[in-house]
From TrEMBL:
TM spans (from-to): 21-42, 181-207, 228-257, 277-299
Pfam families xrefs: FtsX, FtsX_ECD
Keywords: Cell cycle, Cell division, Cell membrane, Membrane, Transmembrane, Transmembrane helix
Protein name, per record: Cell division protein FtsX
Keyword check for Hydrolase: no
Subcellular location as annotated: Cell membrane
Subunit architecture: Forms a membrane-associated complex with FtsE.
Span of domain ABC3 transporter permease C-terminal: 185-304
Family: Belongs to the ABC-4 integral membrane protein family. FtsX subfamily.
């Protein structure tokens, strides 16, 4: 216990002597791990949104109208028999096993929904119910099976087209995943800088204390007694930076995602600070492992004992 307290005392003394370098190390560690935390939060948010959107993913089967292109609807508008055949397939036919629920949207309902979304502007005021397609809006048991359902109805009589939201979602998630990757790349660069700064700080500290190290050798101090204070120095500075990054991660999750974005985009379920608590141990572990490893390699190479 006495040895440990002595080594910790040396560590704090060295930290006071190298305030500028230690402060830079803390700052770089803080910034790099904040990027790691932000990337982890972003990926958690993407996973949450993916689950939510997949549960609400609709497949829309649009039926032929008088204005449908001949290539898609050579027989013209959908007939009652064709409409009933599509509904029969949804209830008892080949598609029934994939369908959780469905609803029929008439031309009048389609026009009403269109006007609600677009408003009574100059472009929409000339649109009539006959211009809007009837459709079946389908929720799937397994959203991953949307391609199977699309194929089942794509060539059915009376069906003009089948659309799903997956393509739009893929684009959105592609952008979010790209932002996550950018954050990780920046974090990786900053972590490399932090490791190099740890090495430089320990080298300077070892050089400044070379006389003390020589005295310790003469009085028979063990290698661990000489080396551990330097390792503690790098680990402690990195730990402080990691704790600051944990605080920043909590702020991002609680205030940026959990409150501000949740108010700006009410239709999406955002994560909150509870997600950050799962990320914080990872940030601390990364900081300690990298700092201890960098410090140990540095003292082993540059500190002759």
């Amino acid at each position: 216990m006495h040895r440990l307290l002595h080594m910790l005392g040396e560590t704090f003394t060295s930290l006071r002597r190298n305030v500028a370098m230690v402060s830079a190390l803390i700052l770089v560690t803080f910034i790099s791990l904040t990027f790691v935390g932000a990337a982890a939060l972003m990926q958690t948010q993407v996973d949450e949104m993916t689950d939510d959107f997949h549960e609400q993913l609709e497949v829309s089967v649009f039926l032929c109208t008088e204005g449908s292109p001949a290539s898609a609807c050579p027989a013209g508008a959908v007939t009652d028999d064709q409409r009933e055949a599509v509904e029969q397939s949804l209830e008892e036919g080949a598609a029934a096993q994939y369908v959780d629920s469905y609803r029929y949207e008439s031309q009048d309902q389609a026009l009403e929904n269109f006007l609600d979304q677009r408003g009574q502007d100059a472009d929409s005021s000339s649109v009539e119910a006959a211009d809007m397609p009837e459709s079946f809006r389908i929720l799937l048991v397994d959203p991953e099976q949307y391609e199977v359902v699309t194929e089942l109805f794509a060539s059915a009589l009376g069906v003009e087209s089948v659309a799903d939201q997956q393509e739009i979602l893929d684009q959105v998630f592609g952008i979010l995943n790209g932002m996550t990757m950018v954050a990780l790349i920046i974090a990786a660069v900053m972590i490399v800088c932090a490791v190099l700064l740890v090495s430089t700080t320990i080298r300077l500290s070892a050089f400044a204390r070379r006389r003390e190290t020589g005295i310790k050798r003469l009085v028979g101090a063990s290698k661990s007694m000489i080396r551990l204070p330097f390792i503690f120095e790098g680990a402690l500075a990195a730990l402080i930076g990691a704790l600051l990054a944990c605080a920043a991660t909590w702020v991002i999750a609680e205030f940026v995602l959990g409150q501000w974005l949740a108010q700006q985009v009410p239709g999406i379920s955002f994560i909150d600070s509870s997600a950050s608590w799962l990320i914080m141990p990872m940030l601390i572990l990364i900081a300690l492992v990298l700092a201890v490893l960098a410090s140990w390699l540095t003292v082993r190479r540059y500190l002759r004992v």
